Each structure stands twice: as structure tokens, then as C-alpha cells.
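Crash report, auto-generated. Payload:
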Amino acid sequence: MPTFIDALTAALPAGRVLTDAESLVAYGYDGGTLLDGAPAAVVQVREEAEVIAALRIAQETRTPVFPRGAASGLAGGSVPRGGIALNFAPMRTILELDEDSLMVTVEPGVVTADLQAAVEARGLCYPPDPASLKQSTIGGNVATGAGGPRCLKYGTTREYVRGIRAVLPGGAVIRDGGAYLKSAVGYNLSQLFVGSEGTLGALTQVTLRLIPKPPAVGTVMALFPQLEDAAAIVTRILRAGILPSVLEFMDKACLHCIEHAAKLGLPAGVEAFILIECDGQPAAVEAELARVVALCAAGGASVVERATDDETREKLWTARRSVSPSLGRLKPSKLGEDISLPRRAIVPMVRRIQQIAEAYDVLLPTFGHIGDGNLHPNLVFDPRDAAEMARVSQAAEALIRAAVEHGGTLSGEHGIGLLKKDLLPLAVPAENLDLYRRLKAVFDPAGIMNPGKVFSLAVTRD
Ligand SMILES: Cc1cc2nc3c(=O)[nH]c(=O)nc-3n(C[C@H](O)[C@H](O)[C@H](O)COP(=O)(O)OP(=O)(O)OC[C@H]3O[C@@H](n4cnc5c(N)ncnc54)[C@H](O)[C@@H]3O)c2cc1C
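Recovered output after restart:
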């Protein structure tokens, strides 16, 4: 009897279906360090017709499908458990750049940094900037609702999605929205796909809003001996009528790690590193940066430095972007949390993070997008140490409970995937989870799209 692999091989062009042992290993992981799996087959799609064929066969044979972009996700969202790893990376064409409408339509495998470079060459800007932008794809960014440093001023991927094409299980194609800004027409299916983590259907095209490229950008680094002062500077800057494009934070433990990697020459006795950027017209940027420098100096910073050339700015960004990988210097593995909080809760939450680290005897370096309230406390550990693993798991739950108590939630930009699924009921009411299940059943009645991700299909009352 023919298998789904035979059916896929017969329906798709030669070379699209991979079943060799190396491919099954290579497509079994994502950017997190805790989860992996293995598909029964990898399907490399190059055009929508191939996605339709794959999802038709998957539905007929009740085969699970695990969509995948660059697999830089940190929550196990693309990790396969048998079935088909559906790889969108080869679909990487920018289909239409409409400079008059400030819209671009792309295939899902376009790499975020490639899109940014292409639009910037025309004087335009696509603001969402996950630190993984040199790897991550637009399909993955949309499916996770990716954010990044510039979200304080410009919003996350969600704010840029204006239209989609997607293939549903069984092969039906849906189209929603388009290259226009406003719509008051029915349910917004495009937005439903943002953050859906591949559980509803497979994105094959995305239309994104662009903005004119800000003509000038300036960068300030400030170092604070007191954590409270660093957190308070956010409100001071905003209250001064300045909306920076970036307001990033790293604590002492993160600084220790990146100092080794990036050699910034940071002085001792620093509790927090704050990176601030303002963008816009050159004169306005100049005036805002001067004000920011003065506010930081008056607000307790021991060092305030402006990056006066591209090289220094790049060095600061390299340091910021290398923080996540550089935590590997502390312990072999890490669990990156992604809590999102009301801005007013930042100081008490940072203190709570320190208490949790002490209470559970774990290392918890923390960095994040302090301007928009999105913090990444990272539990670093050695997976061979069972006792430490148990403490890490308890600390992770304590962190989420604390974030919810402070009026926040468990993910600002990484999504839930497999990693945080069990903790979802701490932040999402049971009634909402019931609605999620019913909504999924409308799009995916056989339950083959990225099964087991985000929430369980079985109803459990917590
Ligand atoms: C060093 C590092 C830094 C990071 N920094 C950030 C950051 O600053 N901000 C941030 O938001 N994230 C960050 N991430 C996480 C990650 O890069 C993002 O979640 C990104 O959006 C994932 O894109 P991807 O193409 O790799 O998607 P994948 O990891 O391949 O997939 C992610 C999810 O999208 C689904 N998916 C992928 N393609 C499709 C499609 N065509 N149709 C339907 N579903 C699809 C998958 O099933 C999965 O659920 C970082 C990761 C790393 C490793």
C-alpha cells in the first residue's frame, strides 16, 4: 500500500521530498536548546502549487505537517514529531514592491534582513527587527508575531501585516486583505494568522506595510550602577516627550558574558546597560539625543556615550545581538523566557527575578526590550544535572506566575510552541482555550497542522 511519502514523491518535482537520515536530523530542531524531534520526511516547497499538493496528501493520509521557516524559533514551534517537516525557506522571492503604496508582497521564506536591505535600497523601511533577522524568515516572523528592539516606536510584525495567502489542510487557498492600509470588511483573517504558529494553515504570501526610511539615526549607551535608575530612565525619556526607536536593557550577568565576546571595555560596578536610539529628521535626532544624554547623566548613569560613527554603533549592536548566544559561556544550555509586562511593573519584576534566582538557586541573566516591557530572563543550566533541571523548571513556573501577577503575560514575541504550552493556562483563561480549540477545528478539522503546539486539543480544566 502506498504511503504518504510515495504520494508526495509522485506529486512533487524530483528532489523535493527528502528522507535520508541526515535530513531527518537536520530538520528536527529549532533555535532553542531543549527540544528536538524528527520528521518522517522533509518537503522542500518552491511554489504554492506544491504546498497545495502537500497539504492535500497530508489531509488524505492524516499525516501531521510541521511548517518551518529558518527554524530560528525559540519555543519549539517548528519542531516535528514524525510526519512532514514543510520547509518554506526555498520560497524566497520578493514578489512586488509597491513604492507608491508603501507595500511589499513576499513569499514566506524571504529572510527578514534581505527584505530590509531590499526596501532600504529604495529609501523605505520594514521596521520589525528580531535579533535573529539574518536567519529568520517573514513566514516565521508572521507565524510567531516576532518583535525586536524597534517595536517600542514601530510595533511588532503584527502591525505590518496587511494581507496573506495561506493554504489550509486539504489544499484550499484563502486570500485576505491586500496592499491597502484600511479595511472595515469582516473578520481580519490575516491578523488571525499572526501568532498562530503554523496551527491554522501554511502561509504562502504575505503583504506588509512599509514606512519611509528615517533619514537619521543616533545611538547612546548608558551604564547604571543602580538597577532602579536604569528602569526609571525609560519613563523619564518618554515623559520628556521623546519616543526613542530603541530602548534596550542588559543586566550585569549579561554584560559579563558579552564582555568576553565583544570586548567593550565596560567598567566594573555596572548593574545595567541601556542602549537608546532615536531616529527621524537629522536636526530632531540631534536635539533628542542631546536631551537623552542629559537625562541619563542626571538620572544616575555613571557612563553615557554617544556612538559618533557607524563602527561604534555596529559594535554596540553586535554586543546587544550577541547576548543570547554568549550566555553559553555560563552553562551549556538555557531556557529563554519572554515575559511581557506593563512598563510600570519593570522595576518590581526585575527585583522579583533576582529573588526567584536566589530562591531556586539558579542563574538568571536578564536582558530585553525594556522600553516596551518585554524582558528575557534566561535560565542557564547544565542539562546533565537533574537536580538543577528540576529547580530550573520550578523557577520557570515561578517567573510566569510573577509576570501574570504583575499584570503581564508569558510571551511578548517568541510564542508558545511546545516549550511553554504547559504554562499557557497560567495566562489564558480556560474559556479562551476552549475558543482556541474550536477555532482551530474550523481551519483544521483533522488536527494535522502543527499538532501539539501552543495548546492541547484535549480539554483540561486547570
Ligand atoms: C539568537 C536569536 C535571537 C532571537 N531574537 C528574537 C527577537 O529579537 N525577537 C523575536 O521575536 N524573536 C527572536 N528570536 C526567535 C525567532 O528568530 C523568531 O521567533 C522568528 O520569528 C522565527 O522565524 P523562523 O523563520 O526561524 O521560523 P521557524 O522557527 O522556522 O518557525 C517559527 C513558527 O512559525 C511557523 N511557520 C514558519 N513558517 C510558516 C509558514 N510559511 N506558514 C505557517 N507557519 C509557519 C512554524 O511552524 C513555527 O511555529 C531569536 C532567535 C534566536 C536564535
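Post-recovery validation: Residues 30-31, 67-74, 77-78, 88, 108, 130-132, 136-137, 139-141, 143-144, 146-148, 197-198, 202-203, 324-325, 413-414, 450 surround flavin-adenine dinucleotide (CB under 6 Å).
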